[in-house]
Specification:
With 311 residues, this protein is of the alpha/beta class. The protein folds into two domains: 200 residues, Rossmann fold (3-Layer(aba) Sandwich), CATH 3.40.50; 92 residues, Methionyl-tRNA Fmet Formyltransferase, Chain A, domain 2 (Roll). It is built from eight helices and 17 strands. It has a seven-stranded mixed beta sheet, sandwiched between helices. Strands 12, 13, 14, 15, 16 and 17 form a six-stranded antiparallel beta sheet that branches. A two-stranded antiparallel ribbon has the order 3-4. Helix 1 packs parallel to helix 2, helix 1 packs parallel to helix 6 and helix 5 packs antiparallel against helix 7. The longest helix is centred in the middle third of the chain and has 24 residues. The protein is elongated and about 65 Å long.
């Protein structure tokens, strides 16, 4: 099949690699414009762009697809279908109507749960026991189109957004390769999404990653995992920001934010219910370190208190 591919981050690059490996012709790749990134804020190409350049694929990086001029390369590609994965731009109806078989999306949730931008992180934050991937036919609404394929995946107790992302990326790549020939044969009519169970996964805000020690330890554990690797859960002590990359729930009680113990096994902090043992941390301008190494340069003692947002 002739497949126009639209995507931006690593999740999408995994799918593009699978589409190419399956032997499909990709006459055009759409990805977002280069963005400044890193401490030096140098312009950086997306993961999809890097793969497309490596494979010698034609690229198009519009900031919008609203104009006829911006959509012309899609028309010129004469594609059978467009595959979209974490593209980050809204596709107007005029773009959705171009490919012969329409546009299909690889979405990292079990729709209709977690429509929107951050389904992986929201599933972890909510304490969901499972998530998955839905291949859906795209329409103008936000992740509202008919479902073509859907497969679930258990969320492991220790999964972070990073580890769950990688599992879902591989699942999405496998499902889109399965879906394309079946779509061409007319075998995937699509199932209308139910009206029950709809939820939304808004884009992450850095302020959400502030750890409020008055919350139960089970919720803070989810927050640490959901915000790893971005934007990184954090707390404050004596005005200094400390990022928390790994933690585990332990028994303990005390005033929320109080350090109950600090040693080679971690830093135990009292929560609204239970306690959290911080095992990997990072101070501003420093490296991510195991708790024992972190304490060498940033000593914490029982009785000290990490701030809660109201402080």
């Amino acid at each position: 099949m002739r497949v126009v591919f639209a995507g931006t981050p690593e999740f999408a690059a995994t799918a593009l690699q699978a589409v190419l490996a399956a032997g499909h012709d990709v006459p055009l790749v759409l990805t977002q414009p280069d963005r400044p990134a890193g401490r030096g804020m140098a312009m950086q190409a997306s993961a999809v762009k890097q793969l497309a350049l490596k494979q010698g694929l034609p690229l198009h990086q519009p900031s919008s697809l609203k104009s006829g001029e911006s959509r012309q390369p899609i028309l010129d590609a004469r594609a059978d279908v467009m595959v979209v994965a974490a593209y980050g731009l809204i596709l107007p109806q005029a773009a959705l109507d171009i490919p012969r078989l329409g546009c299909v999306n690889i979405h990292a949730s079990l729709l209709p749960r977690w429509r929107g931008a951050a389904p992986i992180q929201r599933a972890i934050l909510a304490g969901d026991s499972e998530t998955g991937v839905t291949i859906m036919r795209m329409e103008a609404g936000l992740d509202t189109g008919p479902m073509l394929l859907r497969e679930s995946l258990a969320i492991a107790e220790g999964d972070t957004a990073a580890t769950l992302h990688d599992k879902l990326a591989e699942l999405g790549a496998r499902l889109i390769v399965e879906a394309l020939p079946r779509l061409e044969r007319g075998e995937l009519a699509g199932e209308i999404q139910p009206s029950d169970g709809v939820s939304y996964a808004p884009k992450l805000e850095k302020a959400e990653a502030a750890l409020d020690w008055r919350r139960p330890a089970v919720e803070l554990d989810r927050a640490v995992r959901a915000f790893n690797p971005f934007p990184g859960a954090f707390g404050q002590i004596d005005g200094q920001v400390i990022k928390v990359w790994r933690a585990e729930r332990v028994s303990g009680q005390g005033v929320p934010g109080i350090v109950l113990a600090a040693g080679t096994d971690g830093i135990v902090v009292a929560c609204g219910e239970g306690a959290l043992c911080l095992t990997e941390l990072q101070k501003s301008g420093g490296k991510r370190l195991a708790a024992a190494d972190f304490l060498h340069g940033f000593p914490l003692k029982p009785g000290q208190r990490l701030a809660v947002p109201a402080d």
